[in-house]
TrEMBL record, chain A:
This is Dolichyl-phosphate-mannose--protein mannosyltransferase. It comes from Balaenoptera acutorostrata. It is found in: Endoplasmic reticulum membrane. Belongs to the glycosyltransferase 39 family. Pathway: Protein modification; protein glycosylation. InterPro entries: ArnT-like_N, MIR_dom_sf, MIR_motif, PMT-like, PMT_4TMC. It comes from the Eukaryota. The gene is POMT2. Residues 260-316, 329-385, 390-447 form the MIR domain. It is a multi-pass membrane protein.
From TrEMBL, chain B:
It is found in: Endoplasmic reticulum membrane. Pathway: Protein modification; protein glycosylation. Pfam families: MIR, PMT, PMT_4TMC. Its main location: endoplasmic reticulum. It is an enzyme of class 2 (transferase). The keyword Ligase does not apply. PANTHER family: DOLICHYL-PHOSPHATE-MANNOSE--PROTEIN MANNOSYLTRANSFERASE, PROTEIN O-MANNOSYL-TRANSFERASE 1. This is Dolichyl-phosphate-mannose--protein mannosyltransferase.
Amino acid sequence: MITRVPRSSWDETHFGKMGSYYINRTFFFDVHPPLGKMLVGLAGYLSGYDGTFLFQKPGDKYEHHSYLGMRGFCAFLGALLIPFAYLTVLELSQSLPAALLTAALLTFDTGCLTLSQYILLDPILMFFIMAAMLSMVKYNSCANRPFSAPWWLWLSLTGVNLAGALGVKFVGLFIILQVGWNTLSDLWHLFGDLSLSMVTVGKHLTARVLCLIVLPLALYTATYAVHFMVLNKSGPGDGFFSSAFQARLSGNNLHNASIPEHLAYGSVITVKSARMAVGYLHSHGHLYPEGIGAHQQQVTTYLHKDYNNLWIIKKHNTNSDLLDPSLPVEFVRHGDIIRLEHKETSRNLHSHYHEAPLTRKHYQVTGYGINGTGDSNDFWRIEVVNRKFGNRIKVLRSRIRLIHLVTGCVLGSSGKVLPKWGWEQLEVTCTPYLKETLNSIWNVEDHINPKLPNISLDVLQPSFPEIMLEAHMVMIRGNSGLKPKDNEFTSKPWHWPINYQGLRFSGINDTDFRVYLLGNPVVWWLNLLSIALYLLSGSIFAVAVQRGARLPAEVEGLSQVLLQGGGQLLLGWMIHYFPFFLMGRILYFHHYFPAMLFSSMLTGLLWDTLLRLCAWSLASFSLAGHVHALGILSLLLGIAYSFYLFHPLAYGMVGPLAQDPRSPMAGLRWLESWDF
Amino acid sequence: MLGFLQRPVVVTADINLNVVALTAVGLLSRLWQLSYPRAVVFDEVYYGQYISFYMKRIFFLDGSGPPFGHMLLALGGYLGGFDGNFLWNRIGAEYSTNVPVWSLRLLPALAGALSVPMAYQIVWELGFSHCAAVGAALLILIENSLITQSRLMLLESVLIFFNLLAVLSYLKFSNSQKHRPFSPSWWFWLMLTGVACSCAVGTKYVGVFTYLLVLGVAAAHAWHLIGDQTLSNVRVLCHLLARAVALLVIPVLVYLLFFYVHLLLLCRSGPHDQIMSSAFQASLEGGLARITQGQPLEVAYGSQVTLKNVFGQPVPCWLHSHQSTYPMIYENGRGSSHQQQVTCYPFKDVNNWWIVKDPGRHELVVNNPPRPVRHGDIVQLVHGMTTRLLNTHDVAAPLSPHSQEVSCYIDYNVSMPAQNLWRLDIVNRESDTDVWKTILSEVRFVHVNTSAILKLSGAPLPDWGFRQLEVVGEKLSRGYHGSTVWNVEEHRYGRSQEQKERELELRSPAQMDASRNLSFMARFSELQWRMLTVRSDDSEHKYSSTPLDWVTLDTSIAYWLHPRTSAQIHLLGNIVIWASASLATLVYALLFVWYLLRRRRRVCDLPEGCWLRWALAGALCAGGWAVNYVPFFLMEKTLFLYHYLPALAFQILLLPVVLEHVSGRLCRSQLQRSFFGALVVAWFASACHVSNTLRPLTYGDRSLSPSELKALRWKDSWDILIRKY
């Protein structure tokens, strides 16, 4: 079925493109860690994809490009979720019907199916999460044979899968929390066992530190090592990183750079903020909208390389052409009063007593003047922070501050994203608070001055730990920058478990072949009901145990399964779901799917246990034995039938939209918010 | 019966002179020269405006916290006979004579003063010695930041008071649990816990963290109670029910009570009306109520109405049209229908009037008797001043190209037929035959031909649209959203047949009678929701700081500067107390983990009772610090040093607990103990000294010379104001 949509769908444009980048070895930036995209790239490489498809916008046709390998790889990992869930529940409950029910829930869920069919990170992420969960459960059941071969195997596999999960997306952190919690309670248990000597406990601790901390960290770091090794050509992600970092990339103008070393008047330069992931000082031929400060040209910071990042450094009092070869070279010195002229628009960097567009306590920075002639608000004093190299200003190395002469404020970037009128670039302000922060420190990156000799600069090559740190800082900033825009419909975490609204994967109009990501409502609502039922039955059992009630042996066993096995699954669901309520970034429906896996496993386990309890309590009747079998069977059939009803969501549908009563799907639009 | 005749009436009073003395010094430190400075100090400028609103009984909306704290401050104003006439616009402005500064500042100061004896009681109830308890109270007494914050019209001291009260009454309750469950004092302390918790939440939202902590401790205790097999099932159930009522039901009721009183007090319309729904506004005196008073309730064919958007973002506005047409070609080259513009306009205007018309008839007047419009009816909307009909069609909207353009139809004879039929969809209907009601009904207009929904996109149009907001027809409506929902605000039955008369009628103010009332719960839920969602200006402030700065006291806030001298009030902590409190928390955590691990290996360093006391003290004091501090790391609003004070109050309580534990348990010999005692005395003396040194900045009563001020600037990050002469 994965060939049914021969177009790039939804986020495939991102992740497919990034797979191509690996094949072409061009450097890019993404908010997620690299492992998932590397695997996509590898799958593409092995299946003969040459990395030439552009992935420009959703809906582009693949034509002759070989995309099957990448989709097949993701679909394969997505398919593995079902056996993993089956084995996990089987291990936790020791009951085949429970495991079968779980497997059925996941097989017949349209959401999981849709999500696994495309080139996305989610099937890879879910694969690692489930694999980590499975190996953790397996290793728990090896607890009575510590330090045996299977024990070591499952323990280290847990570690490997944790590294995998974290390496695909940062939400892999949640499964790490779960494994961490499990390990802690395990250790706590061992520690309280007085029959074990402290040495044995120490051995247990060391084994876990090795397999669950050291091993995953090493693997995670290794993925970055591979990432930076593979991507050695300059690409679209350069500007996100510091000048020193860019010098590593071949094709970048800083690679083996030879540029004039000291800043002189008349040089054309780019100015980069010292704060990570802020970018270059930038201006363009658009004005601040009316009502926002003065109606003058915008000055922003911009992460990409662009002609509009170029500035000419001039003396404050003369406007003569300083590149005239007859004039002597004059270097810029610490404390000089300068003027920065924007090369493309010939306007001066300017500030005044108007409030900045977003950070109201700061002053606005604009481009002002015509052909370099402005007023005294265009004058800036250039200062070097922590001067080491004498009075001259070194390109790349000197950390400089620009202090506005008239108001005494410091040029800085607030790191806030401007609205649409500012093209979503970052705000530049002049801050009257002179506290020295990275926001207000800049360095000169490109430097063009034909009158000066070029010197080959051995830019300080950053060490690998520095690169790692920087890459993480940039990713974290990128992630927190993904804020929902005003007036945009956004998916809220409480929408998810009730299957409130899906995502259009491909096709919008009624003539298109449409795929819609929506969970099978029967499965999802059953899951929701099961969580409530679990909380109820779990607390009844817990209170009964706490009150010291004597339970019959069979019920005792079932309550153990419910409290311990079910408890782990409930914890998994909570850990993978509740943190989203605290996240400020933009959220999507598909973020819920890892949690959904856990809640499906809980459903399988719960219904099996409850039906067994039912059968036990009815033991005096003759038909009691069948209650369990009948219950499981009817659940299985119900789920399968609902899948038959809803399968067009995943396998694609044509014809009128479901709002239209003529559509074959109209009867299935159970919630008004579903727009397939 | 007449027992009192046989036995004498005896009143025995236990008076703990410690408590009396601590209360006295607490009052002295907080109330001394309370009405100095007679000027607006820092956030008084913020709370003061709300006090004035209460005095004038004008409705306001403040997103910063629930109304109880504001009402307490206003109570001070009421007792002092404040009339609310003061312009709160500038920090440092001198108070006019009608402002009763002393009584306005009295309640926070009392709350701050009473925290001192309460600290004593808490440590005593936790099972530690009188000496430790007095120590805790004295530390609270001399903590400069707590003094500063208590002496002004601010809410932190009130919040701290209720936090401590909640913890204290819970401790009293749980201590009487062992001996006298269900006795009157047991009930009293249990109920007081619940009430204090909701007062804390009612003062500031962050009070909820202390509430959760108390709930958590109560739940742990209740869980032990369940496990106690000497109690019968019925008895356990009674215990659980009593706790549920006192700690869950009562706080909710008390919290609702705050809002009830708040809404009872604020009955007049004011500057924040616009944010609320029409129905809410109509429940206030004056304002919209004056306009809408006496409007007919049921919208009928021929009714003249103004339609307000329910979502009202970015600004509340009304459906509007005017003579101008859409430009033939937009700036980006797309074309339009060139028909009359329909927009959303944020001001009252005669062009906001629309007439509801029956498509089958021509009259624009209301019949006698009026024919009401019901859910599902097909209507046309006629723009009153231009008599053109509201229309939408398959033309891209000016700013939202994926939606349909909405216009008032002009027939250009270019084979673009009128599509002006709309189906009325009452969103909040009770039955499918509901009548469209003024103000109360929230309606959607569904276009009959294209099933597009009339929606406010919120984008301001360019100059040709006079910067009014764009209105579109949304084809793919994703569920319910306020921007697609409208309600009738002003309404009257149209009487004039002729257009000229009708224009006159439209210009005349609306008339008639009958008032509508919203239920309290509806008003409460709307107000609470708006308070939580109102967007505060989260720009940074000169004195804002991050939570990491607080523990090390790397920040300070200049509250007030004397207009002529350099006397000033500055929020600064006693650095000795801050440092040692943090150290005590660390020591506590290490010792706790150490004991816990040893107990797990069956090595009991502490006897069981001592361990339980130690754990409970940690849960309440260290826990209180953590729950009042850690959540700030996740908050995105502007943060100040004073947000740390509730956490600090709990942390200070932990300090004597740890000291007593160290001296009692870890000092083995008498010699060590004496030595440690001497150290503690020396440390306390230094804390007193620091407190005394910083006193001029705390009270602002003495002008210091620049050199003295420079000498007080112990950290570079303290922005003490130094006048340049």
